[in-house]
Amino acid sequence: MFHAPAFSRALSPCRVLIVLVAAAFAVCYSGARLKAEQAAPLHERIDQMIESAHIGPLAERCDDAEFLRRASLDLTGVIPTSDEVRAFLDDPAQDKRAKLVERLLESPRYALHMTDTLDVMLMERRPDKNVKGPEWRAWLHESLTANKPYNVLAAEILGADGVDPDKRAPAKFYLDRDAESNLLTRDVGRMFFGRDMQCAQCHDHPVIDDYLQQDYYGVYAFLSRSYVFTDAKKKVSMLAEKAEGDVDFKSVFTGEAGKTLPTLPGGEPVAEPTFEKGQEYEVKPAKDVRPIPKYSRREQLARLVEAGENEAFRRNIVNRLWAHMMGRGIVDPPDLHHSSNPPSHPALLAMLAEEFAAGDYDMKALLHELALTETYQRAFEMPADLEKQASAAVAELAKLQAEKQQLARAYDAANTAAGDALSAMLKGKEAAAGPSEEDRKKAADAVTAAKKAMTAASAEIAQAESQVAEQKQTAALLAAADSAAQKVVGRLSDDKSLAEAAAQFAKRAAEFKQQIAAAEKAVADKQAAAKSAAAMLAAAEKAVAELDSKTETAEKQLAALEQAVAKAESRRDAASAALAEFEPKLNATRMLAEFAAAAKSTAEARARLQSEGDKFDQAEREKLEAEASRFTVAEQAITDHFAERFAVATLKPLTPEQLAWSILQATGQLDAQRTAAAAEIDKQDAAKKAKEQKDAKGDNAKDEKPKDEPVKKDEQPKVAPEPAPREVRIEQAARAKLQGSVNAFVGLFGGAPGTPQQDFVATVDQALFFSNGSQVRGWLRPSGENLTGRSLKLAQPELVAEELYLSIFGRLPSKAESVEVAAYLASQPKARDVALQEIAWGLLTSAEFRFNH
Does position 9 have pLDDT exceeding 60, yes or no? Predict the structure, then answer.
């Protein structure tokens, strides 16, 4: 049996470690543009942020063959054909990689691949229950073909109810989970907001401090009123919703109870309208009647998502698209965004989220930019001069450690100063607290009382003065009457009655003088009282002014103290930020130094074992062997660090779908079906055209309707949907023929239904499938223009090796690999077809084919 040539690059120590790791942020595109105010394109700014945050060397650029295979798998889900590889490798254009990315994104395979990607991400291979898978996938494919903004696509899923048959497909997300509120809370939280809060259902998360029970029920509140309703007549399940149902919760640990309105992760509770009792529904609940509330919490969730203003929603999807291209998220795992699992590059994640929203949530445009980055185009081998760079880090380490100590001392001093300033402020609050509220109230009450007394005195003075004025007017009249009476009496002295009357006028005039004198004295007394009240008011107002002055002084003192605290805390925070920013630099340098030391120690130990091994006893020998293995541990640590910092490409296992379609591509089955589909489609189109021409001739022979005769409503012509482009129809038809085979791969290589499809674990049944299964073997039997059929027609062994390696690995074979192929073919001259099958089988089942690198 032919053994696949050793994947020499993958089997280097660094590369093996990357395999193990894998197993366990404006350029335009086709009218859709990421809007950026900055001059530099987004892909350049991404690279600047990645490179400025990394200490040490970066992996080199991957070669053209590696880039072609990587981009083809990530953007279309299938490896390139041998002809596509040849054309790309032979293309001398400097911009051929950018043109390739655009070509791949324009390909019908892009929407098909991203349909697979979103299907697996959102449904996690759950079996069909209430909405058929093909219906759901067709909707996804239509959305992706139209490049529907992601926020709109997500809102259509989260707002779907399955009532309208034409819009039923996106309701699969809810309906195939039976609208179970807790399951939906978990899946909506992690898939759309990057937070798996399942363990916060019964209490605050026991491990993740950021995930509170209230956060869980904030999402739960959007979904808890919804349930599955089955239309008895149509026998169709759909979503219904109640108008009532508040959310209360209680911790099983502490017994603490709470309640919440619907709340997006990281957002504020959503206010709701209120309705009079009995007026909550558009359609009230009844037997066999689907209720429709006037206000839907679930629809509000969809509106908020479509608005695209939630930061967690933005960051989740850009992080997932980043992970799709780079092999790991900026936050990894992608569904555990929290402070204890911070982004590897916080500013980069923030920028990508902002750019994505500014670019109308254009997934294709973001993928385009990511594919153009040098970060994406790095090789997956560690930098060749890593040990040299690491040796230089040894000399740098002591300097950086001393610098860290200075930063730490600066932080400690700033932290102490901040504490002292805070203590001084607290003491100052006691010493310069100003008047108490009780004193201020008493002073204010005294002013109020004095004003009241002053007002009363003024009113009494006005009343008394009014009385004096009236009395003086009366007295003046009496005096005039008395004077007139006396003149009359002087002329009529004998008239006693007149004399008596005159005497009465005189008497009353005298009495009024006395009353006026008394009233004027009363006015004077009241004026004195008013003067005293005015003095009291002035004194009370002076007391208030003194209190205000004391308050102002205290406030100024406290403001000065608070300003001192703010300055001290700002210095402390700046020192803390400088220390935090410096820490990764020191850690990276330390890691490089440890790597260099381990390399040196390992080399020395291995040399001693080789030259003097016989002289050591068992204990000494075991000690040297342990020292000799130290390099492997240091190498894994540095490799993990470089992968986390995106300084080297991550080796990614092919998804089950990628694996299946790539094997079908490599063996020639997919191209065969494309050829057959093209012939059938051309035949159908020719027949359709002939029929249209025949019908047109028949219509011309008929009498036309009078031009003034209106067309009846039921005779309005129906507009047929625009047919898909020919290449799209060919690809869809070819894939439809092979979908059964792909499903077999998914069943064997896919994860358990309802679980995240992220990890790759090789199993015995997978190995037996390749070793003993007849399916792949059958595809390798020489036939027509399939892989082995083409190869059999090539007489020269080096051309056979070239065709096999281009078709399977997407690269040219090395000289040694060509020699090995030639030797194996020569060893079986009478069974060349069998030998070709064995070689192809060995390559297809190798580690190089199984991973995207």
Answer: no
| 357 pLDDT higher than 80 | yes
Residues 6+ apart with CB under 8 A from 809: 69, 843, 848, 849
**Structure tokens belonging to residue 404:** 């860290």
**3-class DSSP string for 831-845:** HHHHHHHHHHHHHHC
Which residues in 292-403 belong to E strands, given as ranges?
292-293
N-to-C CA span, the chain: 27
Give the mean model confidence (pLDDT) for residues 353-372. 98
Whose CA is closest to 683, among 637, 644, 733? 733
Q: From CA 158, how far away is CA 135, in angstroms rounded?
A: 17
Residues 6+ apart with CB under 8 A from 9: 15, 381
Q: Which long-range contacts (CB under 8 A, 24 or more apart) does 120-123 make?
A: 120/655, 120/657, 120/757, 121/191, 121/320, 121/757, 122/157, 122/173, 122/191, 123/172, 123/173, 123/176
Question: How large is the average pLDDT for residues 390-395?
Answer: 81
Task: Please report, for residues 89, 466, 667, the alpha-carbon distance to residue 476 in angstroms, rounded to integers and kept in the order given.
Answer: 129, 15, 134
Q: How far from chain centre, in Å, is Cα 398?
A: 40
Q: For the whole model, what pTM was predicted?
A: 0.78
State how far the Cα of 64 lies from the Cα of 71, in Å rounded to an integer.
10
From the DSSP assignment, how many helices (H) and strands (E) are in the chain?
Answer: 30, 10
User: Does pLDDT of 722 surpass 90?
Assistant: no
Classify residue 75 as left (phi > 0), alpha (psi -120 to 50) or beta.
alpha
**How big is the chain, counted in residues?**
853
Q: What b/e sequence results for 708-729 when a residue is b if at least 16 CB atoms lie within 10 Å of its CB, and e otherwise?
A: eeeeeeeeeeeeeeeeeeeebb
What is the arithmetic mean of pLDDT over 716-728? Answer: 71
pLDDT in tens, 203-227: 999 999 999 999 999 999 999 999 9
For 93-103, the pLDDT digits (tens) are: 999 999 999 99
Strands 32-33 and 28-29: antiparallel
